[in-house]
Amino acid sequence: MKFAFTCILFFITSSYAFSQQFTISGKITDGQNKPVPFASVYIKNTTKGTSANSEGEYTLLLNPGIYEVQYKAVGYRQESRKIQLTASQAVSIVLKTETYLLQAVTINGNGQDTAYAIIRSAIKKRKQHLNEVNAYTCEVYIKGLQKLLAAPKKFMGFDVQKAARENGLDSNRRGIVYLSESESKYSFMRPDKVHEEMISSKVSGRNRAFSFNRASDLRVNFYDNFQNWEGLSNRPVISPIADNALFYYNYKYMGMSVENGETINKIKVIPKRGYDACFSGYIYILENSWRIYSIDLYITKKQNINFVDTLKINEQFFPVTQKAWLPSSIKFEFTAGLFGFKVGGYFISLYKDYDLEPKFTKSEFSEVLRITRGSNKKDSVFWENERPIPLTVEEKNRL
Asked: What is the pLDDT of residue 5?
């Protein structure tokens, strides 16, 4: 009887313990103690993770267990921590600037930079990587923020100062004017079928700029030859690894680094002509597989885009399987200005729980978007538990 009671007690206490979830939280900074905004935080060999907020603060909710947590951001050396989680823990991380080592020879026999050989290899593999996943489902969290960065006191007789005060902005007419969050279940089947079910949504303020409120709005794929952003760009924007990319881009090899046993090549991409619909910035290519590891690019009004002056795109990938890498996060960051007004903001999407062998119904793609009833009625307790990116103090004051 005593043995049986002990077993029952053990079962109850164990079940209770594993029904609990704990948090790993902290702040991610650089060597100068400055926050590393939107750094990625992921459990090794899984697609479970989160992102830091604009102040470098992060929170990750997990079941009890032993985890290897990886912290990384573009331009920084990855850090890992092995954590035994039996209670909530505070873990702050310092990321060191990544050092990209130049190879001994960066100019080949034809007088070309090493970058061109890497890009040619990536172009040859483009279609393979584009088509390597036929279908998938995943969960997506999207956060959007728009801020007024500057404004005149009056504009064409309108009292901007008074309106700013009434809308919770500071005395300098600066502050958050729009803040949104949403969670969706996203389904994709090649070549271009998508279905999204929005299960929760929260919006504060008025959105008077362009926005990406759905996972399908934030969908980008640099393995496609072109990015067709209707409304935002008047022309398709050419990928740095498009079939004809060498006609539009110059490339410069910036060096290599090693992460998780993979060699990562950093390539600077430079439009050959300022007026072409091309990106500037950096693309990171994995050695041997020649797949994209991450993207850090931007376009400006020179490329004939609408609404904004500059649009930055940061995309990071992780291995869902050994042979399939998919996005872990995509961030669009923008600035715009007109008549003394200046605005800026971002939209970031986080992806988790990929399923590469989904079972779709015949009617799965009969509609592009479904909004679950009551999705905009979730209370603050729900969002406190579900929100992967913690709010900053300014954002909390806005909600």
From this structure: 35
If DSSP states are collapsed to H, E and C, what string results for 294-340? EEEEEEEHHHCECCCCEEEEEEEEEEEECCEEEEEEEEEEEEEEECC
Mean pLDDT estimate for the chain: 86
Please name the amino acid found at residue 284.
Y
Under DSSP, is residue 362 helix (H, G, I), strand (E, B) or coil?
coil
Contacts of 104 (CB under 8 A, 6+ apart): none
CA distance 122 to 127: 10
How buried is residue 226: exposed, middle or buried, by Cβ count under 10 Å (0-12/13-18/19+)? middle
pLDDT confidence band for 325 (50 / 70 / 90): very high
Structural domain boundaries of the chain? 2-94, 132-232+306-398
Query: Percent of the chain, pLDDT > 90?
Result: 55
Task: Match domain 2-94 to its CATH number in 2.60.40.10, 2.60.40.420, 1.20.1730.10, 3.40.309.10.
Answer: 2.60.40.10
